[in-house]
Design brief:
There is one protein chain. By secondary structure, this protein is α/β, with parallel strands linked by helices. Helix content is 29%, strand content 27%. The protein folds into two domains: 7-78 and 229-239, Rossmann fold (3-Layer(aba) Sandwich), CATH 3.40.50; 86-218, D-amino Acid Aminotransferase, Chain A, domain 1 (2-Layer Sandwich). It has helices at residues 19-28, 44-47, 60-71, 80-87, 89-98, 183-196, 229-239; strands at residues 7-11, 32-36, 52-55, 75-77, 115-118, 128-129, 135-138, 145-153, 158-166, 175-178, 200-208, 211-218. β11 (200-208) and β12 (211-218) form a beta hairpin. α1 crosses α7 and α3 (60-71) runs antiparallel to α4 (80-87).
């Protein structure tokens, strides 16, 4: 690596449809970019070589790498503290509510009627319809469409986009097309990013009688089909010391 060249480490497959091209654009700007396989423990000696760590997969090994980076004063895009806020689904809901979102009710026992079962930790644990897990939420009366909002802070402004998917509660997730950004939802996401220090987030929203409910936050989302590639390049570059 040439002297003075900044190194970015991405916990992400190198052929990812968004972060693969993002890495190439960063290399064109003079950064050295290395991909790390998700789910594989990273040795401190490899992390010590980085100027910036970027996690694209919420796995225990990724959380451990972010924790090491935090202790070793290595910069991270969505750092250990930010990631831990969103790892616990109850703290997710608390953060979402604090910035103005409506969120589903949380029950320790199964509620009457249909419900969604969730684990406390949002790590390789998908919600299930009428299943068994750590806590339960009444199934919201929505039309089965998830509005997946994405936001990226490029260091100067926050860029947002939204895509529509069929909810995986009811089967295979199907891409339904682009969505229109709701100004109130966008405002709450901007608050959430300022509140948590996040540089990029995915927030899942459903509509109940015209009112948006936030149901999930992902600090290591894919940004697929968003058109936010340039914003991601600028954001990672701005986050590198």
């Amino acid at each position: 690596m040439p002297a003075g060249q900044q190194r970015i480490g991405l916990i992400c497959p190198p052929d990812h449809e968004m972060f693969g091209p993002v890495a190439e654009h960063l290399r064109d700007r003079g950064f050295d970019v290395e991909f790390f396989e998700p789910g594989v423990e990273l040795a401190p000696t490899r992390l010590d070589e980085l100027d910036l760590l970027v996690n694209k997969k919420v796995r225990w090994t990724s959380i451990q790498a972010l924790r090491y980076a935090h202790r070793a004063d290595i910069a991270a895009w969505n750092d250990y503290t930010t990631s831990m806020v969103f790892l616990n689904r109850l703290s997710q809901l608390g953060a979402l509510s604090a910035v103005g979102f409506s969120v589903p009710e949380v029950c320790s026992e199964k509620p009457d009627g249909e419900y969604v079962a969730k684990g406390f930790l949002d790590i390789r644990n998908d919600p299930t319809l009428n299943g068994e897990d750590d806590f339960y939420q009444p199934l919201l009366a929505f039309d089965g469409t998830d509005y997946k909002y994405y936001a990226v802070d490029d260091g100067e402004q926050i860029h947002t986009a939204v895509t529509r998917f069929g909810s995986k509660l009811f089967g295979e997730r199907e891409f339904l097309g682009q969505g229109e950004v709701d100004a109130a939802v966008e405002t709450s996401i901007r608050r959430l990013m300022r509140f948590t220090g996040a540089r990029g987030l995915g927030v899942d929203v459903v509509e109940v009688e015209g009112e948006p409910y936030a149901i999930d936050v992902n600090p290591a989302t894919s940004f697929r089909r968003t058109g936010l590639e340039d914003a991601l390049v600028d954001s990672l570059a701005a986050a590198t010391p």
